[in-house]
Amino acid sequence: MNAPSRHLLLAVLFLGGLPVFAKIPDARIETTIVRIVPATTDIRQQIHQQPELSNREFQTAEHLRAQVPGTAGHEHLTEVACVDVPPGEKRPEFGCFNIGMVTGLHFSQASVYWHLRAFPSRKAAEAAKSATGIVVEEDGRVWLSEFGPRNTAPRGGEAIAVVGPLQLPAAKSYAAVLSYAVMRPGDNSRAHTHPGPEGWYVLAGEQCLETPAGANRARSGGTMTVRSNIPMELNVTGTTLRRAFALVIHDSAQERGIPSDWKPSGACSQ
Questions:
Q1: Same domain, yes or no, for 61 and 152?
Q2: In angstroms, what CA-CA distances link 60 with 55, 73, 191?
Q3: Please, are residues 209 and 215 in contact by the beta-carbon 8 Å criterion?
Q4: Tell me: the pLDDT tens digits for 149-206?
Q5: Rounded-to-integer distance, Cα 113 and Cα 115, Å
Q6: Domain contains 75
Q7: Of residues 215, 201, 188, 184, the one with CA closest to residue 247
Q8: Are residues 62 and 90 in the same domain?
Q9: pLDDT tens-digit profile of 42-67?
């Protein structure tokens, strides 16, 4: 072709046998024709019958739609459980991941509170951390988790949330596991129990926890707790990505989470 010139591109798309015209103004173009054909059409047969089309691009309408961001729904994550990610292994984009743990905990009281604070640097958080605290880096910030009475808080940093009370079951010692979850609307956890209380702090989005007692909801900036050994299913509600921390303080002699045969009623979708 000669030097590029301004043209008016007229695109003719055949969808379902009917022509659809689209004008793209003020475009610099080469002579290229894209023809959209039904997915059931034998493309090779059409090229054989019309050799002049052999150098032109064919795509099915379904394939074209699949390339348009946001037009197709994602596959929901179901039966999600929080998992460990081995060092050096890339973490999946969505799911629930165990990011910190401390063992050998002993408490003189029957319930404790989870104190969550943010710090400007890991060095500052480590300096404020007790022997049983957990420091993690997530969501672009440095976080310190400490456990104890409601009126006992770590020094320094920004107070984000106090979650509790977390009612402890009788045990010789406890382990605390901190998890971070990134899930999409419609995703849900497996039905399960914990041999200890669980608490949440929601960073973004919305969540709904169904237990035999009903549905409990929390959104960005909110907290939630559930007692030990309660069957539960967590659902991501709303229309935006849900990011949250979860903390389980459980009997060290038992696993953090146990699958449950309890069947949710779907209360979170009502």
A1: no
A2: 16, 19, 40
A3: yes
A4: 998 766 899 999 999 999 999 999 999 999 999 999 999 999 999 999 999 999 999 9
A5: 6
A6: no
A7: 201
A8: no
A9: 434 443 444 443 333 333 333 323 33
In three state form, how does the secondary structure of the chain look?
CCCCCCEEEEEEEEECCEEEEEEEEEECCCCCCEEEECCCCCHHHHHHHCHHHCCCEEEEHHHHHHCCCCCCCCCCCCCECCEECCCCCCCCCCEEEEEEEEEEECCCCCEEEEEEEEECCHHHHHHHCCCCCEEEEECCEEEEEEEECCCCCCCCCEEEEEEEEEECCCCCCEEEEEEEEEECCCCEECCEECCCCEEEEEEECEEEEEECCEEEEEECCCEEEECCCCCEEEEEECCCCEEEEEEEEEECCCCCCEECCCCCCCHHHC
CB 251 within 8 Å of CB 177: no
Reading the block at residue 134, the tokens are 């957990």
Place of tokens 């009502």: 270
The contacts of residue 27 (CB under 8 Å, 6+ apart) are 6, 7, 8, 9
Terminal Cα-to-Cα distance of the chain (whole angstroms):
62
* Same structural domain, 49 and 96: no
Model-level pTM?
0.72
> Considering only CA atoms, which of 238, 251, 159, 168 is closest in space to residue 206?
238
Indicate whether 90 and 48 sit together in one domain: no
Q: Residue 15 belongs to what domain range? A: 7-66
Alpha-carbon span 170 to 93, nearest angstrom: 37
